[in-house]
Design goal:
Helix content is 44%, strand content 17%. With 209 residues, it is α/β, with parallel strands linked by helices. It has a four-stranded parallel sheet, sandwiched between helices. The chain has a three-stranded parallel sheet with strand order 5-6-7, covered by helices on one side. The chain is globular, with a radius of gyration of 18 Å.
Length: 209
Amino acid sequence: MKHYLQFNDFSADEYAYLLERAAFIKKKFKAYEKYQPLADRTLAMIFEKASTRTRVSFEAGMYQMGGSVVHLTTGDSQLGRAEPIEDSARVISRMTDLVMIRTFEQAKIERFAQYSRVPVINGLTNEFHPCQILADIFTYIEHRGSIAGKTVAWVGDGNNMANTWLQASEILGFKVHLSTPGGYEVDQSIAGIRSSESYQVFKDPMQAC
């Protein structure tokens, strides 16, 4: 069993397979060919942070592939408040086949995954946003080909998106030009990257671009 809690949970080879598989499934969907490998499977979506796009994309994708969805909000799940995270993970994972969580601290989703019987996907945490960057990279490949050896400019806060872009650059072999406002720099230890070779910092966002 494999969780997807941050971008570096997968290797370059695994991403190559995953992106190829996504293209295959999308092609079938666009051709109106029924393809439902997730028939009789249930995804639990836990939202401590609301999101229109995350909910619609996960829910629509699950239905398109033959599965069903249970949608839980903060009031429904009470993660770590009325019920310990460990107990929530045990109960929810007994009744579903997959869990997506959109929450605050990365530590919370990691604790849930530790006690879950089924794979857990990070729909967003304060530290990482792997599904968003995965979607961005898939779109890049569709329009421009391989991202290996290319350069991505990130202008903005050193946030969960920036952290995830930096992880992706290490794994997939491209470079990130990073320009953040003073006081909002990327924390390399939080980002979980091993070296600074895959990115370069610019004070001037125009130079980064």
